[in-house]
Amino acid sequence: MRINKYLAHAGVASRRKSEELILSGKVSVNQTIMTNLGYQVSSGDVVEVNGVAVYNEEPVYYLLNKPRGYISSVSDEKGRQTVMDLMPQVKERIYPVGRLDWDTSGLLLLTNDGEFTNLMTHPRHGVEKVYISKVEGQANKENLRPLTLGVTIEGKKMSPARYEIIKQDKAKNHSVVSLTIHEGQNHQVKKMFATVGLPVQKLSRVQYGTLNLDGVPTGQYRRLSKKEVSQLINLAQEK
Description:
The chain is 23% helix and 29% strand. The chain is of the alpha+beta class. It has three domains: 3-54, RNA-binding S4 domain (Structural Genomics Hypothetical 15.5 Kd Protein In mrcA-pckA Intergenic Region, Chain A, Roll); 61-123 and 210-238, Pseudouridine synthase I, catalytic domain, N-terminal subdomain (Alpha-Beta Plaits, 2-Layer Sandwich); 129-208, Alpha-L RNA-binding motif (Alpha-Beta Plaits), CATH 3.30.70.1560.
């Protein structure tokens, strides 16, 4: 495996960033500084970045149905529960692909494949994600229309989104709306609804590309098949 791909699969950086690390002399192989971008890493090689050994595990991919109240992180300095607490049997050094907020539930991918993570999270690729949102107020065609045109959040225009009004409760003054987006910025769905005057009360991600939560109860997870991973990669590369 080429050294830049090796570093990407190990989660160090994307292939391009890995090349920059190599050319800047920060990568060594068997204690020798490596600047040859075409070097093929062998099974017995010891690869280090800034003096720290890099281990390239077999890539694995998991789907977790995240409950509310968990941080989408490997660890938390405040001692809060993380999604890793839900997956103690997994031996590989996995990490979340993107994030779901502490109070957001639903579909979260985890892997040890840095290149896959970059492909899924880079704005250029825009894999579709579907959220079910309980919002304050009465959602209708008029107030949701700006979302289909692309609202501007913090100076950046979002891609046009699709919506479906699932439920309206006039007595309790709330609505349930399905929203399909392409980006994955922090608090994006909440901010989008806020721009049209519908504050989010509860939020769950129910679909990521070709994947959904069928057969995966809250707090549980499963390993993705090679076919499912290939489908996600193909979706991202089509963009």
